[in-house]
Amino acid sequence: MELIFNGILMTEVKFSRSQDDFLSSDLPKINYSNQKFSDEIYFKPHPILFEPGIRKQNIDVVPFKNMSCFFQTSPDSTFPFDVFAASFFLVSRYEEYSTVDFDQYGRFSASQSILHKLEIIKKPVVDIWAQWLADEIKEKYKQLKFFKNKFRYISTIDIDNAWAYLNKGFWRTYAAQLKSVLTGNFDEFKTRLEVLNGKKKDPYHTYEYLNSVFSGNEEKIKFFFLMGNYAKFDKNISYKNHGLQELIKGIAKNYDVGIHPSFAGFIKGDHNEVVQEKDRLATISGRKIKKSRQHYLNLRFPKTYQNLLKAGITEDFTLGFSDQIGFRAGTCTPFYFYDLENEVQTNLKIVPFQVMDGTLLHYQKFSPVRAIDEIERLMEEVKNVGGTFVSIWHNETVNDLGEWKGYQEVFEKTNQLGFKWANEQAGSLY
């Protein structure tokens, strides 16, 4: 209810369990109970919001307004589906609590999502349903107006590996050169040597370019740094490296920075790993670190978010799919994590993202032209409901080299459109 009425429709809502109070009130009202009284806006509840614990839910598809919805309600309800129960199911990530089948990195796949199965994964359905509800309320209470949120755009950069060749230390560099020779990769051997000798720019050093794209919109940008120890899936520069420390300090002067909790820390499942990595970044940057995004987008409900809360994180940007663009929680409006295990709403704000560079190229195999088209369609969906569009990029994917040839234009056009719409649009009554 808070998400739908406060977060999306920008209005207040109060609750009453008294039938007499409900019937006597002349305020705009919704009856959410098992008994309909007269011609009020009415929804007979699906049981999920009144059940303790977690169990497998039967998903009954309900066609409505050219969309596949679910959680069918009574024939005399205003909608043929329970908009509150369906929204809660999606936003709480109820379906992920009972998932046991994950991808090779331990992630929930888009193909398992009800949104994918109903072919509504590319629509912010919770926000759309909220607007349907607002239209019904306004039809009955014509004096009532709702405030439509202003479109927001956030561009984020994950720094998994700050440089391709520089600042790796003697032994890592020696081993890498030896491997290049043994595998016959002499082009890489030559390039690394030229970079180390100052004859060529490191291909991952794209920070001046990023500054040029972000100029004038610095407040819409967030950088996430990997501060874990070197491991199989955490091949970052050491946090002790002077070059990395200077890079972080420079970025933190102009942009918001957050922690990129390590893959190894996720596997251990210990919040102390996040605390240690967060403290490293705080010491280097001179900032209090309250924001995060999981490395590899590793996210296990509810443990990962419980650990972030214990570590002092108050805002997380992990929620999205690695293998599909779209809306993992069915919404583009930030919301607070509801811990189903403990039946409590927490103070951890979840900011969902819609697109990631690796998803576009490696999983969906989009050409740059197709990627731009898909991103614009998604951004239009978000703009239509006054939501927040979030994109993920990496310092090495915007260099216009190798497999990423052509994707620099995708990055630029995404940011240009996002900045344009965010800067020109104001909130409005409707």
Overview of this protein structure:
This protein has 430 residues and is of the alpha/beta class. It has two domains: 2-148, no CATH class; 152-429, TIM Barrel (Alpha-Beta Barrel). It is built from 16 helices and 15 strands. It has a five-stranded parallel sheet. It has a four-stranded mixed sheet with strand order 9-10-12-11, covered by helices on one side. Strands 1-2 form a two-stranded parallel sheet. Helix 12 (271-285) packs across helix 13 and helix 15 runs parallel beside helix 16 (407-424). It is elongated. The relative contact order is 0.13.
Largest sheet: 5 strands, parallel
Shape: elongated
- Give the second-level CATH assignment, the architecture of the largest domain: Alpha-Beta Barrel
Helical proportion, percent range: 25-40%
Q: Roughly what fraction of the amino acids lie in strands?
A: 5-15%
The largest sheet has its strands arranged as 8-7-6-14-13
Q: For the record, what CATH class of the largest domain applies?
A: Alpha Beta
Summarize the structure.
The chain is built from 16 helices and 15 strands.
